[in-house]
Design goal:
Length: 202
């Protein structure tokens, strides 16, 4: 398989700052997994910087980077969210949210001034962040009988497999994650066992 099954994201929260004509632009970047987490982070920052005039942001989600959103939060259209999103793209990041909080200094910066301010603040936050590479993993659930226990465990010992859950009560069940490019090899080996039932978990 030729597709890329890795992506870049942040290890943790990082911050950046840009000042222009009395205005302060505080950028905060986070790793996020879904839109629910985006909402939580935005709510936290609105509370933390409750007296700021604008909380502009952009985020990208998913290994294929197909889910994204930009928000100007009252700034002129295209002057805030888009330049923040541009910085995420230039670093090839996903599962990442950048919020730039603006404290207005009394002097208007104009369209080009705003674009530069939001872009520079976002860039500063991302440059001070630790960028990590993660693998795209597929998740499977396997049901099997005791007789196939040794065979199953032998296959799941593979270095690309991570066991997420296991239950050996009434039924033998294991949920595991496997790196996408290795998934076909692992699932093919499992299907050769007699009693197993394998299903993909989304």
């Amino acid at each position: 398989m030729l597709f890329d099954d890795t992506y870049k994201t942040l290890q943790g929260r990082s911050e950046g700052l840009y000042k222009e004509k009395g205005s302060r632009f505080i950028a905060v970047a986070f790793p996020v997994c879904n839109e629910e987490e985006v909402k939580e982070r935005l709510a936290e920052l609105r509370k933390e910087y409750h007296d700021a005039r604008h909380h502009c942001y952009a985020y990208i989600l998913g290994p294929s980077k197909d889910a994204y959103r930009i928000n100007d939060d009252g700034e002129p259209s295209g002057t805030a969210g888009r330049p923040i999103h541009g910085q995420l793209m230039s670093k090839d990041l996903t599962n990442t949210l950048v919020v730039v909080i603006r404290y207005f200094g009394g002097i208007k910066l104009g369209v080009s001034g705003l674009i530069n301010a939001y872009k520079t603040a976002a860039k500063d936050a991302l440059e001070s962040a630790t960028i990590i590479e993660k693998t795209v993993n597929d998740t499977y659930r396997i049901h099997f009988q005791f007789n196939d226990m040794n065979g199953v465990m032998q296959i799941l010992k593979d270095s690309y497999v991570q066991i997420a859950e296991q239950s050996f009560d009434t039924d033998y069940v294991i949920v595991f994650k496997v790196r996408r490019r290795e998934a076909e090899r692992i699932t093919t080996a499992l299907k050769k066992l007699q009693t197993i039932k394998l299903e993909s978990v989304y």
